[in-house]
Amino acid sequence: MLSKIEQIGMSKQHLGEFEELVLLLIVMLKEDAYGLAIRKGLKEHAERTVTIGAVHGTVNRLEKKGLIESRLGGATDLRGGRRKRLFNITAFGRRALQQSQEVKVKLWRQIPELSLNILQYPI
Amino acid sequence: MLSKIEQIGMSKQHLGEFEELVLLLIVMLKEDAYGLAIRKGLKEHAERTVTIGAVHGTVNRLEKKGLIESRLGGATDLRGGRRKRLFNITAFGRRALQQSQEVKVKLWRQIPELSLNILQYPI
DNA sequence: GCGATTTATTCTATAAAGTATAACAAATAG
DNA sequence: CTATTTGTTATACTTTATAGAATAAATCGC
């Protein structure tokens, strides 16, 4: 028999590298995290240029895994356009992000010669 | 016409999340980075349990992409056993690792509420 | 030398993640 | 009521991630 966690798909899969970036962008964007904004944020903050289809494919997967939730945004104040699908991270998603962070920082600490200048200071 | 970089397969692919872990372990293990040691290191340092086949599949891909190199180790001082295939990171691999690190740290810095205690101190 | 044991790698197959392109949907201004 | 704008969905395909079984090569004891 499956545990509650397994039933709802919250078992120990790992965050893919792009999934992690998208998740981080969703946190950064707060109340305005939706497809196009995520795509723009990835380009500006992560030097990552992808199509909008790539973003949506990933958010759909993240939602199915319970790492984010989505709701439909209200009518736009701007002219034209379909309503936004707004995303927010779940507690489970936040934990996944923190675990990933924890593992990497732990490894980096053991390899000081790898570190960039940016890492010489507290995050 | 392809650039030199493209010809030898060193263009802008991104490091997969498991590829990054394996690469980090290879750096950590220094002169003793080979299949089984990498697997053991992943378990001990990254809470990641995988089969040896998973490790080898990944190192093969990393080598094909020019991120690591391999050579055959000398005969063992211990009893029995085939010779080890020893890995070391290339300059290109090191750069890939640093870029990945740079992007993530940059994002984390913008999301202070995500950070764990470990991140309050310099890495 | 040769089989048993040990330590390792390679092969093969499949699932999951990453990604692009194109099609579709819905809001609103005129 | 249709053209324009802003956005999401659908589909297809490639690359990564992963397990399991098969195979290889070193050495020990006889």
Question: How are the elements arranged and paired?
Answer:
The structure is a homodimer of 123-residue chains.
Chain A (H helix, E strand, L loop, with lengths): L3 H4 L9 H13 L5 H12 L5 H13 L3 E5 L12 E5 L1 H19 L14
Antiparallel strand pairs in A: 1-2
Helix pairs in contact in A: 2-3, 2-4, 3-4
The first copy, chain A, binds a DNA duplex (30 and 30 nucleotides) through helix 2 and helix 4.
Gist of the model:
By secondary structure, chain A is mostly helical. Chain A has five helices and two strands, in the order H-H-H-H-E-E-H. Chain A binds a DNA duplex (30 and 30 nucleotides) through helix 2 and helix 4.
Overview of the structural elements:
2 copies of one chain form a homodimer. Chain A is mostly helical. Helices cover 50% and strands 8% of the residues of chain A. Chain A is built from 5 helices and 2 strands, in the order ααααββα. A two-stranded antiparallel ribbon of chain A has the order 1-2. The interface between A and B is large, with 39 and 39 residues. The first copy, chain A, binds a DNA duplex (30 and 30 nucleotides) through residues 13-14, 16-19, 34-36, 50-58, 60-61, 75-76, 78-85.
